[in-house]
Design brief:
Elements lengths: L9 E3 L2 E3 L1 H4 L2 H6 L2 H45 L1
Antiparallel strand pairs: 1-2
Length: about 80
Protein backbone atom coordinates (compact mmCIF):
# COMPACT_ATOMS: atom_id res chain seq x y z
CA UNK A 1 0.00 0.00 0.00
CA UNK A 2 1.15 3.49 -0.76
CA UNK A 3 0.93 6.60 1.37
CA UNK A 4 -2.58 7.83 2.26
CA UNK A 5 -4.17 10.09 -0.32
CA UNK A 6 -2.17 8.66 -3.18
CA UNK A 7 -4.14 7.17 -6.04
CA UNK A 8 -3.57 3.51 -6.59
CA UNK A 9 -3.33 2.39 -10.18
CA UNK A 10 -1.17 0.80 -12.79
CA UNK A 11 1.75 2.79 -14.17
CA UNK A 12 1.60 3.15 -17.94
CA UNK A 13 4.34 5.31 -19.33
CA UNK A 14 4.38 8.52 -17.31
CA UNK A 15 0.69 8.54 -16.33
CA UNK A 16 -1.28 6.54 -13.82
CA UNK A 17 -4.34 4.74 -15.17
CA UNK A 18 -7.03 4.55 -12.53
CA UNK A 19 -10.63 3.46 -12.57
CA UNK A 20 -11.80 7.08 -12.33
CA UNK A 21 -9.79 7.99 -15.44
CA UNK A 22 -10.91 5.00 -17.50
CA UNK A 23 -14.59 5.50 -16.73
CA UNK A 24 -14.61 9.30 -16.82
CA UNK A 25 -17.56 10.66 -18.83
CA UNK A 26 -15.38 12.80 -21.10
CA UNK A 27 -13.29 9.78 -22.06
CA UNK A 28 -16.32 7.60 -22.71
CA UNK A 29 -17.96 10.28 -24.86
CA UNK A 30 -14.79 10.84 -26.89
CA UNK A 31 -14.55 7.18 -27.94
CA UNK A 32 -15.60 6.49 -31.50
CA UNK A 33 -17.95 3.58 -30.74
CA UNK A 34 -19.39 3.12 -34.27
CA UNK A 35 -15.90 2.76 -35.76
CA UNK A 36 -14.80 0.35 -33.03
CA UNK A 37 -17.92 -1.78 -33.45
CA UNK A 38 -17.51 -1.73 -37.25
CA UNK A 39 -13.92 -2.93 -36.85
CA UNK A 40 -15.05 -5.71 -34.53
CA UNK A 41 -17.89 -6.68 -36.88
CA UNK A 42 -15.53 -6.67 -39.85
CA UNK A 43 -13.08 -8.98 -38.11
CA UNK A 44 -15.65 -11.61 -37.16
CA UNK A 45 -16.00 -13.20 -40.63
CA UNK A 46 -12.22 -13.61 -40.82
CA UNK A 47 -12.17 -15.22 -37.37
CA UNK A 48 -14.96 -17.63 -38.30
CA UNK A 49 -13.33 -18.59 -41.61
CA UNK A 50 -9.94 -19.01 -39.92
CA UNK A 51 -11.43 -21.22 -37.23
CA UNK A 52 -13.24 -23.33 -39.80
CA UNK A 53 -10.11 -23.74 -41.94
CA UNK A 54 -8.01 -24.69 -38.90
CA UNK A 55 -10.58 -27.25 -37.74
CA UNK A 56 -10.94 -28.69 -41.22
CA UNK A 57 -7.17 -29.01 -41.62
CA UNK A 58 -6.71 -30.60 -38.20
CA UNK A 59 -9.46 -33.17 -38.83
CA UNK A 60 -8.10 -33.94 -42.30
CA UNK A 61 -4.60 -34.47 -40.89
CA UNK A 62 -5.86 -36.79 -38.12
CA UNK A 63 -7.98 -38.78 -40.61
CA UNK A 64 -4.96 -39.21 -42.90
CA UNK A 65 -2.89 -40.49 -39.99
CA UNK A 66 -5.68 -42.88 -39.01
CA UNK A 67 -6.05 -44.19 -42.58
CA UNK A 68 -2.28 -44.71 -42.84
CA UNK A 69 -2.26 -46.64 -39.55
CA UNK A 70 -5.22 -48.82 -40.59
CA UNK A 71 -3.55 -49.54 -43.94
CA UNK A 72 -0.29 -50.42 -42.20
CA UNK A 73 -2.07 -52.80 -39.81
CA UNK A 74 -4.02 -54.43 -42.66
CA UNK A 75 -0.86 -55.10 -44.68
CA UNK A 76 0.95 -56.41 -41.58
CA UNK A 77 -1.81 -58.93 -40.81
CA UNK A 78 -1.96 -60.39 -44.33
Amino acid sequence: MGPPGRRRGRRVGSSTVTSEYVHHDDCVESRDWPALLALLGGSLPFAVVGGALYTSGAVSHRMSEHLAEVTRLDTASV
